[in-house]
Write a structure and sequence with these properties.
Shape: globular
CATH topology: Rossmann fold
Strand content: 25-35%
Structural class: alpha/beta
Oligomer: single chain
Distance between the termini: 32 Å
CATH superfamily: Nucleoside phosphorylase domain
Number of strands: 12
Order of helices and strands: EEEHEEEHEHEEHHEHEHE
Largest sheet: 12 strands, mixed
Helix content: 25-40%
CATH class: Alpha Beta
Number of helices: 7
Radius of gyration: 18 Å
Length: 245
């Protein structure tokens, strides 16, 4: 998107990596929703778009930027997906919690462990920005689900081996960054949101602990936790009507 980019006021994108993470939300495609915004709780209309970005940060970023080039940029994006909790984190119970994230990183675990070097010009951090829809979702989700907070780190592959002593032995990388969760796409979407000047948050089901048993835990918990998250979001984002019924 160049300086002449088109930003669509009132359009919100609810996106996920692949269809099983957003399939229930697809009923909101091209729907108008009314949300109470601001101290006066006046209702404001938002149009919803839903689509899958594809798996991985690069694929996700290219998909988002391509959609924005074709349709115009939304003023706000919400990523809905799943994440693993790094095992040095004792508060985010895998299988029970849902993470609300506004900071994103793109570190490889080898770099965190000091076994790889990241060149200084390489950008590995992105800051989200909570818009009105994100704020409303945060408020309402806390009434319905166990919500935890922390930054997401997006790796290029699923981490299977993790040094649980990383925090102590390698200079406090996690305390310095606030990284608590791992997801493959969130950083790429956050970087795209920065380019588009769109508000962005991620809401992920914390399905597993990062490590050798993570994939098995994800496979057993992913669908039920995704359904719970999507169903809860649908109960909050009740559509009014299509613009052209």
């Amino acid at each position: 998107m160049g300086p002449d980019k088109k930003i669509i006021e009132g359009e919100v994108w609810l996106i996920g990596a692949f269809e099983p993470e957003i399939d229930l939300l697809m009923v909101l495609e091209d729907q108008l929703i009314d949300l109470p915004i601001g101290s006066g709780q006046q209702k404001e209309k938002f149009r919803v778009r839903t689509f899958a970005t594809g798996v991985g940060s690069l694929t996700a970023a290219l998909t988002v930027l391509g959609r924005a080039q074709e349709l115009g940029a939304p003023f706000e994006m919400v990523f809905v997906g799943s994440s693993g909790a790094y095992p040095n984190d004792s508060e985010a119970e895998a299988g029970e919690a849902y993470a609300f994230s506004t900071r994103f990183f793109g570190y490889d675990v080898l770099a965190l462990e000091g076994r790889a070097h990241i060149p200084a010009p390489m950008q590995v951090e992105a800051a989200g920005r909570t818009g009105p829809v994100g704020r409303w979702l945060e408020t309402e989700l806390k009434k319905r689900l166990k919500v935890v907070y922390g930054a997401i780190n997006s790796t290029s592959s699923v981490t299977l081996a993790f040094d649980a002593k990383l925090e102590k032995d390698k200079g406090g990388a996690f305390s310095k960054t606030g990284m608590r969760f791992e997801n493959l796409e969130a950083f790429g979407v956050a970087r795209a949101a920065e380019k588009l000047d769109a508000a962005f948050v991620a809401i992920t089901a914390v399905t597993n602990l990062v490590g050798p048993d993570g994939s098995r835990q994800w496979q057993s918990r992913h669908r039920p936790m995704s359904e719970q998250l999507q169903t809860t979001l649908l109960s909050i984002l009740r559509p009014t009507r299509p613009e052209n019924p």
